Every structure is written in structure tokens, then in C-alpha cells.
From TrEMBL:
SUPFAM superfamilies: SufE/NifU
Protein name in the entry: SufE family protein
Pfam families assigned: SufE
Organism in which the protein naturally occurs: Sphingomonas aliaeris
Family annotation (InterPro entries): Fe-S_metab-assoc_dom
Lineage: Bacteria, Pseudomonadati, Pseudomonadota, Alphaproteobacteria, Sphingomonadales
């Protein structure tokens, strides 16, 4: 996966269609999520497309999230969100301004409200997970 900074630089130069393609490509780079983990318990509520997020704890006590969506652009959005927190300690995730890191992408103005309505719920689920595992 590219870094968030690299994506911001590239995103700023693209037109709307190419931004969609970038998000779709980013979603394709997500680690595959086994179908067995796509359950009601891992479903993010309030998204127009189905989005599943499943946390795992690595040996070094960092959180690693598996995620998927049945919508290509939505899958790219969750991949973008995960770039801000993936493989970080719970306390570091809680200290991360996820919305601030995503603000240069201006998703609310670039995408339809249907595609962005679930972003706060994705972020809330990640924060709740980090809170459960925080020291």
C-alpha cells in the first residue's frame, strides 16, 4: 500500500474520474478478508454499501484491520481510512486525528453523500476497537 502522503500528492493532481479510479485501485490492494469474517458482528452500520471491518492484534500489540466492501469505491474509502491507523498501537490510534489526515482528500465534496455517509461510522468502529485494546 502506498503512504498516505504519496496518495495525497497524487490525488491532488487528478480529475474526478481518475480520483475514483485511484480509490478503486486502493481498495483492490486491501488484504483479502475471508468470507467467514463477513458477519453481522463485523458489519459497519450506516454505510450505503456493505462494509466489514475485523480487528486482529499482532504479536507486538499493534492492531491490524481486515476490511472489505461490496462497493468498489467504498472499499477504496475504507482502505484510505485504514492507511491512517493500520498496524499501530491502540494508544497511537486513539491519538490519531483520522478526520484531519483524510481532510486533504475532501471526500465529502469529491464523492456522493451516499458514498461518504458511512465514513464516520468506520472511524468510530476503529476508535472503539482501539479503546478496548488500549493500555
Amino acid at each position: 500500500m502506498p503512504s498516505l502522503t504519496d496518495l495525497q500528492d497524487e490525488y491532488g493532481f487528478l480529475d474526478a474520474d481518475d480520483r475514483y479510479r485511484l480509490l478503486i485501485d486502493l481498495g483492490r490492494e486491501l488484504e483479502p478478508m475471508p468470507d467467514a469474517l463477513k458477519t453481522d458482528a463485523t458489519l459497519v452500520r450506516g454505510c450505503s454499501a456493505s462494509v466489514w471491518v475485523y480487528p486482529t492484534v499482532r504479536d507486538d500489540s499493534t492492531l491490524h484491520f481486515l476490511a472489505d466492501s461490496n462497493g468498489a469505491i467504498t472499499k477504496g474509502i475504507i482502505a484510505l481510512v485504514l492507511l491512517t491507523v493500520q498496524d499501530r498501537a491502540p494508544d497511537a490510534i486513539l491519538g490519531t486525528d483520522i478526520e484531519g489526515q483524510l481532510s486533504p482528500f475532501d471526500l465529502r465534496n469529491q464523492l456522493s453523500s451516499n458514498r461518504t455517509q458511512g465514513i464516520p461510522n468506520m472511524i468510530a468502529l476503529i476508535r472503539e476497537t482501539a479503546q478496548r485494546y488500549a493500555a
